[in-house]
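Bit of a strange request maybe. I'm writing a small parser for structure token strings and I need a real example to test against, not something I typed by hand. Could someone generate the tokens for this chain?
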Amino acid sequence: MGGYRRRLRHDAFEYLEYLRDRGSNGMLRIPWGGWCVTDTAKAHSVLRDAEFNSGRSAFFSDMLPTREAQIEVGRAVRNLLRSQLPEYRVALAVEVSRLPAASQWPAAGIDLVYRSMRDILLHPESPGHLRDLMDRGVHGGIMFQAPTVRQRIRAEFLRTKFNQAFTEEVARRRKNPAEEPRDVLDALLATCSESLPDETVSALFGTMYRSSVAPSASTLAWSVLLAFMHHASDSPLPWPADWIVREAMRHRPMVWMVGRAVPHDTEINGVSFKAGEFVSTSPYLMHHAEQGWTDHDVFRPERWGEPERGPFIPFGAGPFICSSAAVAMELMTDALTVLTDGARVSVTGGDTRPVMIEGAVPRPFTLHRSVGQLHAAGRD
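Reply from user aminoacidic:
Good idea to test on real output. This should exercise your parser:
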């Protein structure tokens, strides 16, 4: 198994399918640790199992003391994002208008989503050095892991600076609380207990900063890449934007493995586990199962207008499903709509093999976009 890293780098999805085919009883041992439930029905059952999902969500690590506190924080951020959707749409239109005729993705997509959400994460009247730190973190190793050791060392310095600065801002805002949440940080402060240390609230903000932007930006990049690899024409895209986004999340899910330590001794598909052992399910494998998915290996957005579909879990399932799933869908669908509306769009250099950077991210490609009348065939 020593060469698994090389195979992951080449094509992680292909390698996962290879491991699945070598597994038995719907289970496979993962070379990098733990087990994966590959039987679709059993995986779905595990994701919804109350005992398996007991305790706190690993998303928040140990930052919050109870599951109830985690739920409250998730809802507060979701509600803030939902209330700010009109502002996001205005900012999105401005940022799309600033795109050059040729832009390099997924980096340009990350910038597009981040800049459209910047004022929601931290309102414009916040200290300038905090907004500057957020800007630097997007490509400085905070939003996504830096690729080289030297860059990761520099990213650690930036992360320390980021955490210290936001810890000071938390203390400042606690002394002068806002009447109504103006941004994500205010939403956290309105929900978190006063006994929660400033450093912990700062760390929570860092988690929300990353999770609000990175998955949406990566899914937008996959949506653009896959749609225009399959529609090389001057005419408008033949599918609704939300169908494209859903199909991108099915075909190339950024979150391709979901797992946690089992809370107690248990047995899954005839395999015994001790409390603390790590068990995963794979959205990618479930989204490509022959059961329930016609042409499961094909990017086919029109399937979302059909009645029969298989399990779809891009935001998880069961007790730990993402509380902001519906809002995230709106963010991504709006971004794709504004990006493609009234414009000629094409891509070059596309590759459907993912790069594994905090999830499955597209390899670099170029998006070509020009605003103007579409080909006459597209207007008919």
